[in-house]
Specification:
419 residues; 45% strand; 4-stranded antiparallel beta sheet; 11% helix; single chain; elongated; mainly beta
Length: 419
């Protein structure tokens, strides 16, 4: 005894403790590959948040009892919540910036597991009952299980936009719940004591389970799986073992893997180039739009005049019908004229200049002129530009480009066949 005391009399006094539960918390970002902090519950009635790099204590929470199960949500640098069940049968909640931890719910039976989904706290008790509470401690629903509850985990299905709760029971079954409704279940060879859902390798939806006999079971969720409320006796198994079922997924080639790695490594540069190209596209579109407005190459402009052009006939004689409408409420339009521009070798316009009378608001005016196709080719087609302008201005108010149809009927003995 004297020798033992002489050896340890200069050593500082330390109180050794035992870890009772573990959890993780993202430090500053919620990305999958971001840094996480380790959250420890100890026998000394404390919860510690450790720094992931220096392993120093970032935060300490004192509890009235020994923690046995915990669920962590949020970011340490932003806002977080630690929900803990203790041996005294109570649920405690600790948030960032709060030092006093008060009991939220006092359970009638000892808890065996706990999980949080959004603002709901789900607790499994030793009486084979699953309880759901709000963040204020009010009971939402209660579900009786067919056997004792051994483990629970949250199933986040981002591709389906839903969140489920997987519950393992002592009869070797794992059931999936959407709130209180059972949506699916499957059986395992042994009783599941612990399970976790998440990404495993290249598979994003994988459920890993540890059984009471020391076995490890890995189940992969089908990409075509759909969870809907139905009778559990007729439910089909959605999770298949990799040893018994093979997913119909095409093999990933080396080129695909290399391209994926390149995109991950150069994601910031690729996003920057994409943004630059998008800005250039928007700029060029805006420039072309301004040019179209300035040159009035549109049937609708800032003026209250609306232009519509139609072509009638099969050829070689056509009728071009021009419709003008004054969309103003009170203002009349006057001193307007219509002119046509085309290839003189292809078409001949009977009335190339049309004087427009004073236009009353709300009325529609129709003007017609004949156009003759002069070319000898039967399938000749071209375009005619229709301009509406004021007599006192050089720039047109409205411009419309009309694509002429194919000339189907030829001339017979130098005369034009009219339809």
């Amino acid at each position: 005894m004297i020798s033992f005391a002489n050896i340890h009399k200069v050593a500082p006094l330390k109180k050794q403790t035992v870890i009772t539960c573990l959890g993780t918390m993202k430090k500053s970002m919620a990305d999958d590959d971001s840094i996480s902090c380790l959250v420890l519950g100890t026998e000394s009635q404390h919860v510690y948040v450790l720094d992931p790099q220096a392993f120093t204590i970032l935060a300490t929470v004192s509890l009235p009892s020994i923690p046995v199960f915990m669920s962590v949500q949020g970011l340490f640098d932003v806002e977080y919540q630690i929900t803990v069940t203790c041996r005294d049968g109570r649920i405690y909640v600790s948030k960032r910036g709060t030092k006093d931890v008060r009991p939220l719910v006092e359970l009638l039976y000892q808890p065996v597991c706990i999980e949080t989904i959004g603002k709901q706290i789900i607790v499994g008790c030793s009486d084979m009952t699953l309880h759901c509470y709000t963040s204020k401690g009010k009971i939402v629903w209660r579900q009786k299980m067919p056997a004792i509850i051994t483990a629970v985990t949250v199933i986040n299905l981002h591709q389906l936009g839903t969140t489920l709760l997987a519950v393992a029971t002592g009869d070797g079954k794992v059931a999936f719940f959407s709130d209180k409704l059972k949506v699916d279940q499957f059986e395992v060879e042994d009783v599941v004591m612990a399970m976790k859902f998440g990404r495993y390798g290249r598979e994003e939806s994988t459920l890993i389970m540890v059984t009471s006999g020391g076995g490890l079971s890995i189940r992969i969720l089908k990409r075509t799986a759909r969870f809907e409320g139905r009778d559990p006796t007729h439910s089909t198994t959605s999770l298949k073992s990799t040893a018994s079922a093979k997913l119909n997924v095409p093999k990933k080639t080396k080129l695909f893997v290399d391209q994926t790695m390149r995109e991950r490594e150069n994601s910031a540069v690729m996003h920057r180039v994409y943004q630059q190209d998008l800005y250039k596209l928007r700029l060029n579109t805006a420039r072309r739009f301004v040019e179209a407005i300035e040159s009035n190459q549109s049937p609708v402009s800032s003026s209250p005049i609306k232009l519509s052009v139609k072509v009638q006939g099969l050829g070689p004689l056509f009728c071009v019908k021009v419709e003008l409408q004054n969309t103003s409420d009170k203002k009349t339009s006057s001193n307007l004229a219509i002119t046509f521009i085309c290839d003189s070798k292809t078409y001949s316009i009977e009335n190339n200049f049309i004087q427009v009378p004073m236009m009353v608001p709300g009325s529609q005016y129709v003007f017609r002129t004949r156009v003759t196709c002069l070319t000898d080719q039967q399938n000749a087609s071209n375009s005619i530009k229709v301009l509406v302008f004021e007599l006192s201005q050089l720039n047109p108010l409205l411009t419309a480009i009309v694509s002429m149809p194919l000339c189907e009927l030829p001339t017979a003995n130098g005369t034009v066949l009219e339809v």
